[in-house]
Each structure stands twice: as C-alpha cells, then as structure tokens.
Design brief:
The protein is α+β, with helices and mostly antiparallel strands and 704 residues long. It is 32% helix and 27% strand. Helix 9 (616-663) runs antiparallel to helix 10 (670-703).
C-alpha cells in the first residue's frame, strides 16, 4: 500500500465536500479526528461554519459524474468550544461532537431517497443537538474531555461514555446524565507554578484513555454478590441469577491499568487495580502513556501507546488468585477492590515518527483505532503520519481456538513478531513544519482508508482486507513441496525475493505545502534517502548478486556434466539404432515364415473338410424322427393322465356306491347289469390296448 503511486485511489480530493472544506481548514499543530465514516456515509466537521458536512461516498464513487452532492447538518444548539473529534454511534443514529472543553450529541435525520441521503437530499438540514453539561465546563476551567466512546450494548444506541480529566467517567443517555463513575482520585491540588495543569496530571495519576473489553457473564447470589465470572457470553450461560458486565479498561498517564466492571444500569461499579503487568519493568511500560485500545480476541489483546512511539501488545488474562487491595491513590474515599485480571505483555513495537534526523527524536500523542475488517490489525495516526500494525499472535490465537487438532504446535505460537507499516509520513526532517492528521477513518466495500491532513490534502488508499496475506510469501518461501508443472528455478526465485524483502518500508510523503523547505532541509532529506539506499537496498543487491554468481557457477557445472551425459547418450542411441535395424531384419524373416505356415495350415483344414463323411442329412432325418416321437410321447402322456383321472373318478363313484350299498340293497335289472358289464369290458380292453402301445413305443425308443 505504501508504495502505491496513486495516493488518492477513491478520488476524494476532487469531491466538492473536500474542496469546500479545504478553504475552511485553520492551521493546526495537533492531531484531530474531524472525519469519520459510518457505512456508506462520510462525515466531516466544518470548524468555520460549525456544521457537519456529509455525503454518500459509495453512491458517488459508483458514478462518473459529480451528481451526488454533499449535505450540511446544522446543530440546533451551537457549540461554544472547538470541536476536534466526531464519533458516530454504533448504529449510526447519533454523532458525538467533542472537544477539549465540551461535548454535544447530534441526532441524525432519517435517510430516504434514491441516493441514500438524509431527508431525501436536502442541502441543509437542521438537526436536533444537545450540549452536555455546559455549566460543568463553565464552572471548572481546568476540566477537559479526554475520551468519548459509545456503549456497545445500548438498547437505543444513545448511551455515551465520556472520560474527563478529573478522573471520572460520565454516562449520558442522549442529554440525560445517568451515572458518574469515579476512576481515580480528584485532582484538586495545583502545582506551585500556578499553571492550569492539575497536579495529579503532572504526576501521571490522571486517566488518559479507556476502552471497553468484550462482555462477560457474572453470576450473582441471592444477596447480589458476584460469585464467579465467565469470559464467554452465550445464551446457555445467561440465567436468571446472572448478568452481563463489560470490563472497562482504564489507562493512566504513568502506564498503570485499572478495570471498571460496568453495565448499562450500573450506578456504582467496582474499580479494580492496579493490574499486575508481566514481565515487570521499572518504568511500568512507559511513563508517557497516551492511548489504549482493546482488540476483541480470545483472550482480549490490550494495545498501549506512548508519546515516544512505543506500543506495547499484551493479553488481558484472568488472575489465578485475586490480589490484595491496593493503595487508595491519595483519596481515602476511592475504594479499590481486589483485581481479578492481569496483563501479560508479549512484545513492544517502536514506531518511526517521521523521517527524522539523528539529532532530535520526535514525540507526539499516538491515537489508536481498530480495524473493523481484521481484528488482528489496528491503525496509529499522529502528527507525523499514519501506521498500520498487524498483531500476528492474534491470528495465531484464533487459529489455535478454531483448530480441532490436540497436537498442534504451541511452542512458537506467540513468537511471531508484529508488522508495523508506515503508510503516510507528514514530517521529513527535524526542522520542517508538521502536517498533522486532522482526520482518519476506514471505509468498506471496497475496503480502504481516508486520511485528511492539516494542509487540506486527502489521502485515500486501498486496503488489504486480510492482513494474513502479508505473511504468505514467507511461508511459501520456506516450503519444500513443488507443485505440478513448476519450473525448476522457482525455489531460487523465491529465495531471491525473500532476500529483496525490504526491512524498512518507505511511506508516502505528504509534507506541509504552505512553505518550501530550505536547502538544508532538502539536503538532509536527500542524505536520509541515500543512507536508506546504502543501508537497506545496496547490501541486499550485493547479496543477491553473490547468490546469482553462485547459482551461475553451479549451473555451469551442471551444464558441463549434462553435455557429457548427452554425448554418452548419443553413443547409446547409435548402438540401440543398430540393434533395432538387426532386429527389424530378423522380424521380417520370421514374419514371412509365419505367413507361409499359416497358408499351409489353411490348406490342411480345407482338405480335411472335403474328406469328411456326409452325415448332415442323416442327422437331420434323425432329428425329425426324434421330434415326432417326442410329440407322440407327449400325446400319450396326456391320454394316460386323462385315463388316470377317469379311474380316480370311477373309484370315487365306486366307493360312494359301496357306501350307499351298505345302507340299502340295490337290485339291478338284468338288462342294466349286462350293459354295465359290457361298458367295463370295453373300457378294460381300451386300457390294455393303450398300455401295449406305450410298451411298444418304449421298446422302439430303447432300440433307437
């Protein structure tokens, strides 16, 4: 991304919104965030006219013309402070307008119309707004707003958490103040010099940032006391005797961490801390801490940044044993409960804050923002540009959780170093003017980032959705498997590419264009570029040249060996050709002899057939005779069956007759008796004749 020639991939510089905004930007020396994107709508705060400009960037990007115009949202209540940050709510219903000396909530109108605009595309819309606690800031000139975040579990998308410099977090539901949570002692003491900076702030005991960790289910007893906690929230764990709490991680300026377990209706949450950080260090991982974010991994990943450019990556773990109650931070009324958490720091990343010289090390507040497309990546923007940091162990942890293999290797799972990529640099040398970031936001579909600089320049870059792709070339270069149809020199090419991978990424330079750099500054920039070439690129090229020379020598040796093998193969080829010719001659002789023998065999078969006796006619006649006898036999068998049936019927009649005779004596007339005897005699003669005929047929068949 950083090496892309086009620094405005989405053509935002030419949009009317940014053209109009460019004429109203006042000179700034500190980083702000007056640009935000929610879904397909970009919001930009106009500090001169005190209104919120917005337009549907996705609809505008889909058209070639500039027909999609921007809209102006006018707050109904004007702000009497300088707005330096805008924060859309979770569902996009509200926008928080915050500054160092105040905060307001702007209610967004409904969206309807063909282009997805507010109120069907009206140019100017008056929106309902609420200035929160104006009197509080008026009566306390030292009070400042440090951080603003929307509660992720707000039922109406309207609960806002505001961290103030008096170590308190105020919870608002639109304009209504719900709770005031104490997160530290009240900074009432003043330094001897009489400045407006609270004394506790100078000691680093003031909370500077907070973030909300993933929710937890807390089981409670009948008396309302917490019994245990579960780090996974699902429907099966939520019962009538449990509630969901959100751990609020609080960072103080001296690097100490605290936990505030909150809910939407929690009036007095328990403050736990300070958290034990392992491995322990003398400076507690930074005495100039400035910002904090929590990545929703398992376990949650905590990112801590310092003004010196150091960023610490750690895991928020459950403590096996609750630690004893800590010191009450100079305020006896502030009760600290035993801590149930600890932080395990895994690595520290040092960011390069500008292309600085060798005399002065740049320091500035580092602002952190999560990447909502990849939970293992976040962004750090500051006075000297923008960094993208990929936390590789988050991806390793997710792979370990999703894997079903119990034998997965865990030794080096958390040892993969993070990758910090310097995308945009706004400070080239120590003496040059700064060009701080006025707004940074992330867009999606397509995925990209938008950066507004104090000079009015807009940088928009396409974004790799899956940052794990950045590690794929290293994995592939170490692989030993070869794919089908793969060239032999592909492994060598991968080796050369791995050598040429740059250790230092050159960011896009976006300097302040209001004044030309001096000759000294230009010379320092040129010297730095030459030094980078000498230290980072020339040694790699020399190493590549050495590897290529070694490869050429090796290939020359292989070439000579292959020439000798080719000559030997030519000799073997000549021998094989001579043997093939000799075998071909022998094959022709054998084929001729085979043809001769085949013809002789055919002649023998023909003669044997001619001399064979003519028995076909006799066989045909015999077959006809057999068929005729078979037909007669079947007919006789049928007659025999009929005779047997008649005999059975007569036997039945005789039996019946005998039964009847036992009952009565029947006297036949002589004429009837004589007729019956004649019939029986004829039937007996017929049966005997048929039996004799059957016997003759059988004898005839046996003789045949």
């Amino acid at each position: 991304m950083a090496n892309s020639i086009d620094t405005d991939c989405f053509k935002f510089n030419d949009r009317k919104l940014f053209v109009a905004l460019r004429n109203t930007i006042a000179p700034a020396t500190e980083t702000q965030n007056i640009v935000e994107c929610k879904d397909d709508m970009i919001f930009v705060w106009n500090a001169v006219d005190c209104n919120l400009m917005c337009f549907n960037w996705r609809a505008a990007n889909a058209r070639t013309d500039d027909s999609i115009k921007y809209q102006t949202l006018l707050p109904s209540s004007p702000q009497n402070y300088m707005v330096d940050k805008i924060t859309p709510s979770q569902e996009g219903s509200y926008v928080a307008l915050s500054g160092r000396r105040g905060i307001a909530i702007l209610e967004l109108p409904r969206r309807y119309g063909p282009n997805g605009t507010f109120s069907e595309g009206r140019d100017k819309i008056i929106c309902r707004s609420h200035n929160l606690d104006d009197r509080l800031f008026t009566n306390n000139i030292q009070l400042e707003v440090l951080q603003v975040r929307w509660h992720p579990a707000s039922p109406k998308d309207s609960h806002l958490l505001v961290l103030l410099s008096n170590n308190s977090i105020r919870v608002y539901d639109e304009e209504m103040l719900l709770h005031v949570w104490r997160v530290g002692p009240l900074p009432v003491a003043m330094p001897p010099s009489g400045s407006n900076v609270p004394y506790l702030n100078s000691l680093g005991d003031t909370a500077v940032d907070f973030d909300i960790a993933p929710p937890r289910v807390v089981a409670t007893g009948n008396d309302g006391q917490n019994l245990n906690q579960s780090s996974i929230v699902n429907e099966s764990t939520i019962t009538a005797m449990s509630r969901v709490q959100w751990p609020l991680v609080i960072l103080r300026g001296n690097g100490t961490l605290y936990i505030l377990s909150i809910g939407i209706e929690t009036a007095k949450p328990q403050l736990q801390g300070p958290l034990s950080v392992y491995p322990a260090t003398d400076d507690n991982y930074g005495l100039d801490s400035c910002s904090l974010i929590v990545l929703p991994s398992l376990p949650p990943t905590i990112i801590l940044s310092e003004t010196t450019g150091k960023i610490h990556h750690g895991l928020l773990m459950d403590s096996e044993e609750e630690e004893e109650q800590a010191f009450n931070d100079i305020d006896a009324s502030l009760i600290l409960h035993p801590c149930q958490y600890s932080v395990q720091v895994l690595e520290t990343v040092k960011l390069e804050l500008g292309i600085a010289g060798k005399t002065v090390q740049s320091t500035c507040p580092i602002h952190l923002k999560r990447d909502f497309t990849d939970e293992s990546r976040y962004f750090a923007y500051h006075n000297t540009g923008l960094h993208a940091i990929t936390v590789n162990f988050v991806r390793d942890l997710q792979s370990f959780v999703d894997s079903d293999d119990s034998n997965i290797e865990t030794t080096n799972m958390l040892s993969t170093p993070s990758r910090a990529e310097y995308l945009v640099c706004t400070k080239a040398v120590d003496s040059s003017q700064t060009n701080p970031v006025l707004g940074f936001t992330q867009i999606q579909s397509p995925s990209g980032i938008l950066l507004l600089l104090a000079s009015g320049q807009v940088v928009s870059l396409s974004l790799i959705v899956d940052s794990g792709c950045l590690r794929e070339p290293q994995r592939k270069s170490n692989a030993t498997e070869t794919k089908p149809n793969q060239l032999p020199n592909s492994e060598f090419e991968s080796h050369i590419k791995s050598i040429l991978v740059a250790d230092v990424l050159q960011p896009i330079l976006k300097l302040n264009t209001t004044s030309e750099p001096s000759a000294k500054e230009s010379f320092e920039l040129l010297t730095h570029a030459v030094e980078i070439l000498r230290e980072q690129y020339f040694p790699k090229l020399n190493k590549v040249r050495t590897e290529i020379d070694k490869r050429v020598k090796h290939l020359m040796v292989l070439k000579e060996q292959q020439k000798q093998e080719i000559a030997q193969l030519q000799k073997e080829k000549e021998k094989i050709r001579e043997n093939a010719e000799r075998l071909a001659d022998r094959y022709e002789d054998v084929s001729d002899k085979q043809q001769s023998l085949f013809k002789r065999a055919q002649e023998v078969v023909r003669l044997a057939t001619l001399k064979a006796p003519d028995s076909a006619q006799r066989a045909h006649e015999f077959q006809k005779q057999i068929e005729k006898i078979n037909a007669l036999t079947k007919a006789l068998s049928g007659n025999i069956l009929m005779a047997k049936k008649k005999m059975e019927k007569q036997n039945i009649q005789v039996d019946q007759f005998k039964k009847d005779n036992t009952k009565k004596t029947i006297v036949l007339q002589p004429k009837v008796e004589r007729t019956i005897m004649e019939l029986l005699t004829e039937l007996h003669d017929d049966i005997r004749g048929q039996t004799e005929q059957i016997m003759r047929f059988k004898e005839h068949l046996n003789m045949s």
